[in-house]
Design a protein that fits this description.
By secondary structure, the protein is α/β, with parallel strands linked by helices. It has one domain: Rossmann fold (3-Layer(aba) Sandwich). It has nine helices and ten strands. The structure holds adenosine-5'-triphosphate and magnesium ion. The site of adenosine-5'-triphosphate has 12 residues, from helix 2.
């Protein structure tokens, strides 16, 4: 077998990008020939310094941005052939939770996505109740989303995406501006989604809090994939890419059972 044929077939990937590039009109080359893949059920961290291209990359993965070069595939099929279906199957939780609020109450906000899918009333109610439970928002069901705390808004944004029942959930820096308890709640929510079988792509600067739960870490640098491997391999090179190295890691993973203790 030649090296070219030894790897997995492209159809084995749930989602993959080939030679993906994006040139913005102002001349910025935000991502530059990215080859990226995700397998079903994976929990993947996407890391890299500010401006390295993480947000631009993930906005291509669900068809929000159109590449200026290359292509994104879902189960081997180009996503541009069916963007509506792609956005249903790949949910994106934005960094700015406020921008995702659409309903007058927490309940209505979560129901918005399933209603757009034109599901029947019973199924909508079932999904909203499940999302409220999973993200610990039951007691806030009648509250106005804009008045929630930062951590509650973040959980609401995740609940809204979960209610769409996507295969893949991509979260863009869901821990930013949260206190210890807020991070814990959001991380618990993400782990619950993963346990339910959703594939998770987590964009974060926080290796320490998430690495114990991830199978793979992908590092971006200047619009390219600079490293891709299991956390215990990647921990030793984090510093090379401007990512804070965990305390006491000593190039080991012992300090990274943050949530499990
Ligand atoms: N609409 C746009 N027009 C021009 N340049 C853009 C646009 N959006 C992003 N960029 C540029 O693309 C590059 C990658 O940006 P991106 O937002 O993907 O970075 P990031 O890795 O998500 O950074 P951060 O950690 O700060 O969120 C940056 O140089 C940014 O300035
Ligand atoms: Mg970003």
């Amino acid at each position: 077998m030649t090296p070219e044929t030894a790897g997995p077939a492209k159809g084995d990937f749930l989602l993959h990008a080939e030679e993906l590039s994006h040139h913005f009109p102002d001349g910025t080359l935000a991502i530059d020939g990215v080859n990226f893949h995700v397998r079903r059920g994976e929990f993947l961290l996407l890391m890299g310094r500010n401006g390295s291209g993480k947000t631009v990359l993930i906005r291509h993965l669900n068809g929000l941005y159109k590449p200026t070069g290359g292509e994104v595939f879902l189960e081997g099929q180009p996503i541009r052939h069916n963007l509506r279906e792609t956005r249903r199957r790949i949910g994106l939780v934005f960094q700015d939770a406020d921008s995702q609020i659409v309903g007058q109450t927490v309940w209505r906000d979560i129901a918005f996505g399933p209603e757009n899918l034109r599901l029947d009333r019973e199924e909508i109610e079932r999904r909203v109740e499940a999302a409220l439970r999973l993200l610990g928002l039951e007691h806030l069901r009648d509250h106005r989303p804009h008045l929630l705390s930062g951590g509650e808004k973040r959980r609401l944004a995740i609940a809204g995406v979960f209610a769409m029942d996507p295969d893949i959930i991509i979260l863009d820096e869901p821990f930013s501006n949260l206190d210890f308890e807020g991070v814990r709640q959001v991380l618990e929510g993400i782990l619950a989604l993963h346990r339910k079988g959703h594939t998770i792509i987590l964009v974060t600067h926080d290796f320490e809090k998430s690495a114990a739960h991830a199978e793979r870490v992908v590092i971006m640098d200047r619009g390219r994939i600079a490293a891709d491997g299991p956390p215990e391999e990647i921990v030793g090179i984090l510093g090379d890419f401007g990512i804070r190295v965990p305390f006491g890691s000593d190039r080991s993973m012992e300090s990274l059972t943050w949530l499990n203790q």
